[in-house]
Amino acid sequence: MKKIMDLIAEELAEAFEGAGYDRGLARVTLSNRPDLCEYQCNGAMAGAKAYKKAPVMIAGDVVKRLTDRKYIEEVQAVNPGFINIKLSAGAAASYLNEMKEDERLGLEEVKKPQMLLIDYGGPNVAKPLHVGHLRSAIIGESVKRIARKMGHKVLGDIHLGDWGYQMGLIITELKERKPDLPYFDEAFEGEYPKEAPFTIGELEEIYPAASARAKEDEAYRERALHATCLLQNGHRGCRAVWNHIMQVSVSDLKKNYANLNVDFDLWKGEADAQEFIPDMIERLKAEGYAHIDEGALVIDVQEESDTKEIPPCMIQKSDGASLYGTTDLATLVQRERDYTPDKIVYVVDKRQELHFVQVFRAAKKAGIVSERTELKFLGFGTMNGKDGKPFKTREGGVMRLENLIAEIEDEMYKKITDNRTVEADEAGRTAKIVGIAAIKYGDLSNQASKDYVFDVDRFTSFEGNTGPYILYTIVRIKSILNKYTGEGNSLDGLKIKGAGSSSEKALMLEAAKYNEVMETAYEELAPHKICAYIYDLANAFNRFYHETKILTEADEETRKSYIALLILTKEVLESCIDVLGFEAPERM
Ligand code: ARG
Asked: Which residue intervals of the chain bear CATH 3.30.1360.70?
């Protein structure tokens, strides 16, 4: 469906043209003065110069022309030349009825679906998932769902940090603790055990222990580096330990992400890129894209228009080892070969921006991806505690994701069971659903690039701009609809009639914005715009609810129309929270 503002603009364009002006001037925006009108057009001001006329005269001419109107109910030319517009309630009602009938709620399917790849999550295997990975997972999941809702083909790739020194450390520490394992016996030629020689709990303890020891013990560090090197060169025993680490870690990660309603199509990682590195480096050298600089192999990426220095992209250290940039470039080789994406979005901490500038430029310059492939860095800010410093546990340690989720769930559980008689079972399930919404909405309602304060009290509140408030609104609508059907009524085929009150009209106007908001959120990769929208929509609904007797309305047609409006409002809210990555419970 066309956007409501475009429909108004089309009507206005006829009038501009009819009055002898350029129809392109008929752009319509939401009103800056909601007390006076709903929409406005500033075209008369924009055209004043070209037509050498006072804007208000142009506006007056246009308004005079607007005799035969479908969408515009009231229109006024006001000083210094604005055209103030109110939408016809009847037209709004038919627009909403059309939305209601449409499976996509009026969201137009993209004409040319693109192939998108979202690189998000990015946890490091064998290190516990901590809150730093939370934002990437939440934002990336939402961007993926928004793109999908628009009709694009989208793949989400977790891009595991599963290669390199951290693995060498674990192998070394394991050898230290269990030297008799066959992996460390060079003479061993049999089959290695299927079962991993550690649990996830042990693994999570091994890594920090090894990492700490390597910082103090030089010989140990050398051994870890050597193990890394052996692994990278395909040493049988090291590779087998690596497989165990992956197996144990990945199943734990899967559980954690599933708890967050985050779901990856591809579980690839840095290790999967390794096989592409040798050929890539050969080509980069042979074709003159890479050169040796102070012993390292680099690609220059500085551009003339740069105002600051952009260091070259390093692809091989003097000792032959590859780097983070090498892996990302080789991953692009693989992605190009397997998916030829039109666009790749990287949802990563904004402190990594320079790295991605280097990688993107190198990839384009060397033709690893085509000129047309859009490489987009969606950098996010830090999640801080109330003290304004990066979020920590009460003891000052890194907060594990699981614990954070548990803390929020406990808080929600308390709120749900306070003053209410709910079965413990149901309260538990609800707390889980609402808890996830609290975390995700608390994050997504901020512009991604900004730092924000993770405030448990605020995020779990049922009032204000929070996830629980949005869910509470949906649950309220569900309960009204349940009562309505409970009285023997059907929800089928109900039509929205039109606005009787200003709060009803306001709710209708909010609901009608859905397709516009979703499109903008996609174009700008901005889930926070969806949050802002559903907050407005929920507020509009609650105002309508408080001012209107819905179920006890005497006139049957009006009552049915209210119910129809509620159904649509609920569907819009549900579609929006779906792309934000959470859902509403039946009761709260
Ligand atoms: N594992 C990385 C980290 O923890 C994030 C990976 C981001 N994605 C990428 N393609 N580099 O910092």
From this structure: 4-87
Distance 223 CA to ligand 1 centre (A): 26
Ligand 1 neighbour 161 (Cβ under 6 A):
yes
Determine the atom of ligand 1 nearest the C-alpha atom of 160.
Answer: 1
Q: How far is the CA of 384 from the centre of ligand 1 (A)?
A: 20
Confidence at residue 68, expressed as pLDDT on a 0 to 100 scale: 81
Q: Residue 502, class by beta-carbon neighbours within 10 Å (0-12 exposed, 13-18 middle, 19+ buried)?
A: exposed
Identify the residue whose C-alpha is closest to ligand 1 atom 5: 122
Do residues 465 and 458 lie in contact, with contact meaning Cβ atoms separated by under 8 Å?
A: no
pLDDT at 345: 98
Q: If you average pLDDT over every residue of the chain, what do you get?
A: 94
Check residue 397 and give its pLDDT.
73
d(CA 430, CA 413): 8
Pocket test for ligand 1, best of 348, 351, 369 (most atoms within 8 A of CB): 348
Q: What is the mean pLDDT of the segment spanning 165-194? A: 95
User: Residue 347's Cα: distance from chain center in Å?
Assistant: 9
Partners of residue 36 on adjacent β-strands: none
Report the separation in Å between the CA atom of 161 and the middle of ligand 1, taken as the mean of its atom positions. Answer: 6
Per-residue pLDDT for 582 more than 90? yes
**Nearest 5°: phi and psi at 350?**
-65, -15
DSSP collapsed to 3 states, 553-573? CCCHHHHHHHHHHHHHHHHHH
pLDDT score, position 402: 84
Inter-axis angle of helices 236-259 and 218-232, to 10 degrees?
A: 90
Q: Where are the beta strands (DSSP E) in 2-122?
A: 28-30, 39-41, 72-78, 82-87, 115-119
DSSP run (H or E) holding 325: helix 324-339
One-letter identity of residue 104: R
Which of 352, 359, 378 gets mutated to test ligand 1 (max ligand atoms within 8 A of its CB)?
352
**Residue bearing the CA closest to ligand 1, atom 10:** 328
Confirm or reject: Cβ of 124 under 6 Å from ligand 1: yes
325 Cβ below 6 A of ligand 1: no
Q: How far apart are CA 585 and CA 467, in angstroms?
A: 12
Q: Which pairing describes strands 115-119 and 343-349: parallel, antiparallel, or unpaired?
A: parallel
Residue 577 confidence (pLDDT) above 80: yes
pLDDT digits (tens, 9 = 90+) for 484-501: 999 999 999 999 998 889
φ, ψ (nearest 5 deg) of residue 356: -75, -30
Q: Which of ligand 1's atoms lies nearest the C-alpha of 133?
A: 4
Distance CA 153, CA 372 (A): 17
CATH of 4-87, one of 3.30.1050.10, 1.25.40.340, 3.30.1360.70, 3.40.109.10: 3.30.1360.70
Quick one: CA dihedral 438, 441, 446, 449, positive or negative?
A: positive
pLDDT value for 191: 95
Using CA positions, which residue lies closest to atom 6 of ligand 1? Answer: 122
Q: For residue 175, give the nearest of 208, 204, 210, 128 by alpha carbon.
A: 210
A 10 A CB-CB count for 165 gives 16
Burial of residue 402 (number of CB atoms within 10 Å: 0-12, 13-18, 19+): middle
